[in-house]
Write a structure and sequence with these properties.
By secondary structure, the protein is mainly alpha-helical. The N and C termini lie far apart (140 Å). The chain is rod-shaped. It has helices spanning 5-20, 23-27, 38-60, 62-173, 184-199. It comes from Asaia bogorensis NBRC 16594.
């Protein structure tokens, strides 16, 4: 870092301007600024020279290092800010992805629930239909068996009634010796007439 010539020229101009001020104007209130004194002029000149030397030394040694430290710190701060911005952007994207994933999961869960409910309803309807069909078949089969048993019972009823009536007649007429007075054909005709009357 070089010493700017303008700053050095300005400093020397200020020193010369102060030197042109009458010594009495300064000496009235501040004797140490009496520029009519040659010793003061020498002190001012040497002070300016020492200031310039210190400025040159600092500008070539300490100031570049300070500027480097400041630049490094500024770059580090900017890098940290960039990292923070990227982290914030990543966090925002992660939040958006999480929201989308949660929305998609909720939609998928609702779709699965609807599908399961529909499948359960269809299975229940199919099971109910199958059960109704089976019950109807069982009822039809039972009605057939009942009708067959009834037909068999009705078919065997005249024979059973005839035999029962014949047995009763024989038991009633045996003491009188008339068990053969009524023939089986007569008993059968009487039973048939009674059954016909009951049906009518």
């Amino acid at each position: 870092m070089r010493l700017p010539s303008r700053n050095l020229a300005a400093t020397l101009a200020v020193v010369l301007a102060l030197g042109t001020v009458p010594g009495r104007a300064w000496a009235v209130g501040m004797p140490q600024l009496d520029f009519s004194n040659p010793l003061l002029i020498g002190q001012v000149v040497w002070g300016a020279v020492i200031f310039a030397v210190f400025y040159v030394i600092l500008s070539r040694s300490a100031l570049p290092r300070i500027e480097g430290v400041l630049t490094h710190r500024r770059n580090r701060i900017e890098g940290d800010l960039d990292i923070a911005r990227r982290a914030r952007d990543d966090a925002d994207r992660a939040v958006d992805e999480l929201r989308r994933a949660r929305h998609d999961a909720a939609a998928q869960a609702q779709a699965n629930i609807d599908r399961v409910v529909h499948e359960a309803r269809m299975a229940a309807e199919a099971q109910t239909h199958e059960m109704n069909h089976r019950l109807h078949a069982d009822i039809v089969e039972a009605e057939k068996r009942i009708a067959s048993a009834r037909a068999e019972a009705l078919a065997s009823l005249p024979t059973v009634a005839t035999e029962t009536a014949q047995s009763l007649i024989e038991k009633l007429l045996r003491p009188a010796g008339l068990e053969n007075a009524v023939s089986r054909a007569q008993v059968q005709d009487a039973v048939q007439a009674g059954l016909a009357a009951s049906k009518g």
